[in-house]
């Protein structure tokens, strides 16, 4: 199993901690469920402005969303 597909992203961890679904957040960000899924498996990354918006919606520090993606 490739480590890239199994890597937990900060976004995925925060969603789990907040008990929020990908679909719920995708609706608020006006992005597709596919885009949201790609963000949570680290296939692609949201833009910095999207990270800021996500951090506000989820009421978390932006660093919590990106720290696992950087390691």
Q: What report would you give on this structure?
A:
With 71 residues, the chain is mostly helical. Helices cover 69% and strands 0% of the residues. The chain has 6 helices and no strands. The chain has helices at 3-6, 10-18, 22-29, 33-40, 48-58, 62-70. Helix 3 packs across helix 4 and helix 5 packs across helix 6. It starts with a helix and ends with a helix. Residues 1-6 have low confidence and may be disordered.
List the SSEs and their pairings.
Elements: H1 3-6, H2 10-18, H3 22-29, H4 33-40, H5 48-58, H6 62-70
Rg calculated over all Cα atoms? 11 Å
Helix count equals: 6
Q: What order do the SSEs take from the amino end to the carboxyl end, as H and E? A: HHHHHH
Class based on secondary structure composition and strand pairing: mainly alpha
- Kindly, what is the distance between the CA atoms of the first and last residues, rounded to a whole number of angstroms? 19 Å
Percent of sequence in beta strands: under 5%
Shape: globular
Work out the helicity level: 55-70%
Low-confidence segments, given as residue ranges, are 1-6
Taking the sheet with the most strands, its summary is: none
The total count of strands amounts to 0
What does the average pLDDT come to? 86
Index terms:
disordered N terminus, 71 residues, globular, single chain
Briefly, what is this?
Helices cover 69% and strands 0% of the residues.
